[in-house]
Amino acid sequence: MEKILEVKNLDKYYGKFQAVKNVSFNIDENEIFALVGPNGAGKSTILKTIATVLSLEHGDIFVAGENLKKQAKKIRKIMSYLPEEAGAYKNLTGNEYLNFMAGLYADNKQEQRAIFEFGQDLSGLKNKLKNKAKTYSKGMTRKLLLARTIMTKPRLAILDEPTSGLDVINSLEIRKVIKNLAAQGMAVLLSSHNMLEIEFLSEKLSIIDQGEIKITGSPQELKNKYNSNNLEEVFINVSGK
Amino acid sequence: MHKFLILLKKEIKELITPQLVIPLIIMVFIFAGIGGLLSKETAETANQQKIWLVDYDNTAISQKVIESLENKNLEVQVFDNEIEKIIDQAQTNNIKFFLAIPQGFAKKINSLERADIIIYNLINNFSFVSSLKTAQVQSVLAIINQDLAIDWAGKIDLSITPQELNNPVIQQEYVVINDRQAKVPLTAVLGFVQQQTTFIPIILFLVIVLASQMVAMAVATEKENKTFETLLSSPISRKLIVFAKLLAAGIVALLFAGFYMIGFNYYLQGISGGQITQSGAGIQEALIALGIEFGITSYILLGLSLFMGILVALAIAMILGIMADSVKSIQAVTTPLMVIILIPYFLIMFLDIQAMSPIIKYLIYIIPFSHPFLAAQKIVTHEYSFIIYGIIYQLIIFLVFVIVAAKIFSSDKVFTLRLGRKK
Q: Which comes out higher in pLDDT, residue B24 or B364?
């Protein structure tokens, strides 16, 4: 199976503070990979660096074999990023937002139209897409943004805390969509500190603490290794907290 | 009450931040500085002790006029050469006005006829200080009138009206702008120019402030909403994002400027009752002779200068917007920009920049926002090269700030840059 993402010896500094320390991991096609850790562990920094939002200074990242340092623009076309607790443009309707974002990815009007219509279907918001985003609830906004993230059919979807702050029903719906993504051939890199969510979604995960990856494996492998009933216990054992 | 005080204390603490206090302190110093400069300029203008007088009559009466002025502690410098040469000399010496006693002055005065005294007003700006000259000219004329009236009183003649008896001298005023001159009262010229140009700095100030806050708000909102991260991860160049934001705010600002101009035009027509267009034919001719007309070139240059001013402000505001912690802090981060815009706004409105010390003058020129304010005055005096250099200077400053903004957008500083503290 082809590796869709390879992260090699990634370091990230904010001034003198080292937020990410020598992080390496790979994601295969169709795989859901999770970065798990507490707040401030460096998860979002890693995701933002891969998403090209933050600069890559130390280490290497390859997406579908392309070097991120050299081919950032090309990589951005095959990758999509959903920031944690992101919003949409409040004065645009859901339709206008999806169409605007489709325009940034498409090479022509036809392609833009196709991406936009796919986004409309994915959102499940139907007639509510005609309303301005400022009228949306948190769950509706998240659905709109998730639809925006995957409507371009990226080979790699990067989702930062995809269900953060959502109620049970909305969280479940979002998780189903994510699960379907992998089934459709997309690789997913997500971050969360919700261990139940990770256990449900991911095939492989890395536990990260203080900018370092402590351990990587499938949920079952990790539970077996630490003789734990769930990932929360694994995390406590690994981090020593 | 105790709980109310706890709440009140917390609210005040929330409101009084260093971002609010520091600009306020700076503003106090700026206003104090402007006030100091203004009072100095006002006092200098009001107490100009040196009077230039061209005596073409050279008679006992003209000598008496000179003595009258000297008796009032005025230092009178007398000339008798060609008027053009004296105008040149006066311009070189930064003399604001001078008097000329024409030939036949004494003959008329001695025959108890009112006689002309010609006043040449040399103007190179239309600030508040310029209008103070009018009062000074009037006080000099009052001295001359008073002494000659006493002289007349000794030769009672019923053919003279009491009004004529009080004012033996007829004031004939000339205004000189560069190499053009026209017989017209200074107040008429200043009134016309100020009516035409006063609203330009006001509009400019409003539009720059509005546009700056708009673009800073756009950047801060994107950051706060995290739509910025989505945008930066999409397959478009970051420079494109910067230019799109600047251009969009520039277009909206220009629309605002257009609406403000239309509004102010109606307002001015309302307060002047159409006086500008209906002013006396003599004044109209004099204004044309002085070259005070607002042709298409003037408006294009002024428009360009205004637009460049807006663009510079937008580029700076974009960087300031990046530094904002949240949308709420926009006002605080854009305050330094407002202060930089206010300095030339007040200085140029109230003072004669040309007459200031070279250091202050060039410091004002360094501020890019001075140029649109100055352009509004320079189009009247047809100093187009000054306006063009100003536009070029603003363009350079704009490009520098756009490059800085693009560099910040292309780096992690877009997320880490903060005003006043390190993350």
A: B364
